Amino acid sequence: MKRRALLAMGLLLLAPAAWAQGTCPPTRADMEGPFYKPDAPRREATGKGLSVAGAVKAAGSCAPLPGSRVEWWQANPRGEYDDAHRGSQIAGAEGRYQIATDTPPPYSGRPAHIHFKVFAPGYRALTTQLYPRAGQTAVTFDLVLIKE
Ligand code: FE
């Protein structure tokens, strides 16, 4: 018990130091779900109304990862997955990507979400989800990868 308390205290002391150095914490992984299909076509948009933009970066160093491949897929406005709502992009300078898409609806008891997969040589592939809030039209979503 005592040791556990000391460990917790140590973590509390260390955590702010890590933040102060500006480390980029890795993006939390999230379930892939049953609707992923590889090789999504290159696209700028899979709809309109919601803009999602951000940068692909390395955890820790925050180094941008240009050339990363970003894939996304989501339900259409009727709540069904279709080929019109899957796409991919290659991150540009500074690791930037930007997509326009339809606002996904909540379905099957799940909150509205967009699935993402990100690949960069030398980094662990990331599978995650973005949860836009109702009424949001622009979201910043950085994708932070862990080195292999
Ligand atoms: Fe889903």
**Broad CATH class:** Mainly Beta
The quaternary state of the protein chains shown equals single chain
- The share of residues in extended strands comes to 25-35%
Q: Radius of gyration, rounded?
A: 17 Å
Class by helix and strand content?
mainly beta
Shape: globular
Q: What percent of the residues sit in helical stretches (DSSP H or I)?
A: 10-25%
Strand element count: 9
Instruction: Give the low-confidence spans.
Output: 17-21
- What's the total helix number? 1
Order of helices and strands: HEEEEEEEEE
CATH level-two architecture: Sandwich
Q: Name the bound molecules.
A: fe (iii) ion
Give the terminus-to-terminus CA distance. 35 Å
**Overall pLDDT, averaged?**
90
Can you characterise this structure?
The protein has one domain (23-145): Protocatechuate 3,4-Dioxygenase, subunit A (Sandwich). A hairpin with a 5-residue loop joins strand 3 (69-75) and strand 4 (81-90). By secondary structure, the protein is mainly β. It has one helix at residues 2-20, and strands spanning 45-46, 50-58, 69-75, 81-90, 96-101, 114-119, 126-130, 138-140, 143-145. The strands form two sheets. Strands 1, 2, 5, 8 and 9 form a five-stranded mixed sheet that branches. Helix content is 13%, strand content 34%. The structure holds fe (iii) ion.
